[in-house]
Amino acid sequence: LSKTFMMIQHTVLFKFPELDAAGEAALRTIVAAFDAFPGISARFAAAGGPGGMTTEQLLDAVGSPDRRRGFTHCLLVVADTAAALKAYLHSDAHLVDWMAAVKPYGRGILVFDSALQDAEVLVRPPSSIMHAVAIRAVAPFSQDEVAAAIKAVAELDGVTASFEPHLGAAFLASVEWPDKAGGYTHLCTVVAADLAALQTYVRSPAHDALKAACGAENLVADPVIFDCCPFGGDESAATSP
Question: What is the pLDDT of residue 29?
């Protein structure tokens, strides 16, 4: 996709360790307003899996350690254009209503803007799990090897995958927004149709190949790995971290 017409995945992770039911309901109401903006689709989800699975239950099921780094919730925004994202970011609903609602609870944030190749990323059944991995590329890696590994991952049944760099300073300047990526340079987004598909991915040779392509040095530099179910409204996901 060209930079002029590319869609944008605006992934925001929050640390809300003390978010209560009233606060979460208020946030969901505002996210529903975001979702009505022209050129914007927005979802909000707590960490966890489908059917009320907690993060601990999900990680136990796939045999993975907890690498959320304290993040508890995800706001996933898909913008049709940079102009749509800019309008959303500078709206009263975001700058006034949202900021006021998150202020009592927020203890940390990570914002990652990347190009979106899959225009249907949000068209998924509620059982689908988004497995997002943010890394800091402190060492060089082969983009061709990563692309080949991502292609192999996407060929697994019930799995889609992308690996994208942060859009960078020039993009942030174009939407007049500060850098809140915390030094993270790349985001791998895997969407599994259900728990079984996520288990297949994590245990697959394609996953091993992707890790090898990314480079061991980059995967030990404090990656953030966050799982949630933002696709059907996350009533099905656990509301506690």
Answer: 97
* 9 touches 167 (CB < 8 A): no
Which residues make Cβ contacts (< 8 Å) with residue 176, sequence separation at least 6? 86, 89, 90
- The tokens describing 215, both together, are 């480079």
Q: pLDDT (tens digit, 9 = 90+) per residue, 117-129?
A: 876 667 788 899 9
CA–CA distance from 187 to each of 2, 32, 177, 179, 190 (Å)?
19, 25, 19, 15, 10
